[in-house]
Design brief:
Helix 8 crosses helix 9. The protein has two domains: 9-155 and 297-340, 3-Layer(aba) Sandwich (Rossmann fold); 161-294, Phosphofructokinase domain (Rossmann fold). The termini are far apart. By secondary structure, the protein is α/β, with parallel strands linked by helices. It has twelve helices and 15 strands. The structure holds 6-O-phosphono-beta-D-fructofuranose (F6P).
């Protein structure tokens, strides 16, 4: 490999939970870097793990053909591998080691001029630590949770929102036929954007989000009141991170993962059982789960992903490393990565969205 091609070489990786639109970014990075600027583009497998274990390949045009509308990531991803606390197994014993030095050496040996890191808060937090150690990184925000600071929206969110809204529309017709309460648990981790916005779009009667601790009695009073007014069904959307007043999040299971030691899940069933017990109205629960993360991205997400991917290469060309791309109004801009990570963008409890749902007569559990 000659020196020139070494210099004109950039890497791209996807980290954290997957979401619709990742492939559209990879395609845009490739087409801009390779077809427009003439760079070589290295696709790194399974996020940071690929950089530690030297798993990557040079991307070709055929690798990015027909992937614009494809969900997931052709590169693979993982939401477990933090190079600063990397899981190493030796003779059945598990240890967590700092392998960031190995990662940095591998990147340098590869001759990467830039590394485009597509990830959520966890992946980008690691990126900001790697930048401090000299890696030339440009970050691109992704997550269905829409909880990253400094950007109006992350790609993946619009698709998840539409899936959750469609689920609510479908639950409504069966709820109405059977005169039931239907509870839908959606993702979002510690933020309630998916629940809140799908609840608005899907006309939910009750919306529970982590930012507003709920009282189950209030929810039940509201449902009873609806019944008295002749409304024989109710639709409840619950964010997975919702918490009762004075309580804690509902955990599905704990896992051996130092960066995220538990998995959320189960609050929908908890709320559903309580509603049935306290109101006597037959209640069913649907947990939407990873359906929200899979499949075809919406047109909005494909466009945002393409703009992010293409602009990230310009930033790399200009040497503007240590930044994350963001959407501000109609414009693609960039902010220092350190400003964007570590502080989640949650739903303001007294903001416009919540004010609007209250005016629509929706119960938010308080
Ligand atoms: O952050 C995205 C997200 O989908 C959250 O909404 C959810 O809590 C989590 O990832 C689930 O992650 P996993 O892939 O480990 O099930």
């Amino acid at each position: 490999m000659n020196k020139k091609s070494n210099i004109n070489r950039i890497g791209v990786l996807t980290g954290g939970g997957d979401c619709p639109g990742l492939n559209a970014v990879i395609r845009a990075v490739f087409r801009t870097a390779h077809n427009h600027y003439g760079f070589q583009v290295i696709g790194i497998s399974d996020g940071y793990r690929g950089l530690i274990e030297k798993k990557w390949k040079t991307l070709e045009n055929r690798d990015v053909t027909n992937i614009l509308s494809l969900g997931g990531t052709i590169l693979g991803t993982t939401n477990r591998d933090n190079p600063f606390k990397y899981r190493v197994e030796n003779k059945g014993k598990v240890k967590y080691k700092d392998l960031s030095g190995r990662l940095i050496k591998n990147v340098k040996d590869m001759g990467l001029k830039a590394l485009i890191v597509i990830g959520g808060d966890g992946t980008l937090r690691v990126a900001s630590e790697l930048i401090k150690k000299g890696l030339p990184i440009v970050g691109i925000p992704k997550t269905i949770d829409n909880d990253l600071s400094c950007t109006d929206v992350t790609f993946g969110f619009d698709t998840a929102l539409n899936i959750a809204t469609e689920a609510l529309d479908r639950l409504k017709t069966t709820a109405e036929s059977h005169h039931r309460v239907m509870v839908l648990e959606v993702m979002g981790r510690d933020s309630g954007w998916i629940a809140l916005e799908s609840g608005i779009a899907g006309g939910a009667d009750v919306i529970l989000i982590p930012e507003i601790p709920y009282k189950i009695e209030k929810v039940c009073d509201f449902i009873r009141e609806r019944k008295k007014r002749g409304k024989r069904f109710s639709i409840v959307v619950v964010a997975e991170g919702s918490i009762p007043v004075g309580g804690t999040v509902t955990i599905q299971r704990t896992v051996a993962d130092p960066s995220m030691p538990y998995r959320l899940g189960g609050v929908g069933n908890k709320v559903g059982s309580q509603i049935e017990e306290l109101t006597g109205i037959e209640t069913r629960v649907t947990v939407l789960g990873h359906v929200q993360r899979g499949g075809t991205p919406t047109a909005f997400d494909r466009i945002l992903s393409t703009r992010f991917g293409s602009t990230s290469v310009d930033l790399a060309m200009e040497g503007k490393f240590g930044h994350m791309l963001c959407l501000t109004g109609e414009h693609i801009k960039y902010v220092p990565l350190t400003e964007a990570v570590g502080k989640l963008r949650v739903v303001p409890a007294d903001g416009d969205f919540v004010k609007t749902v209250r005016r629509m007569g929706v119960c938010v559990g308080d």
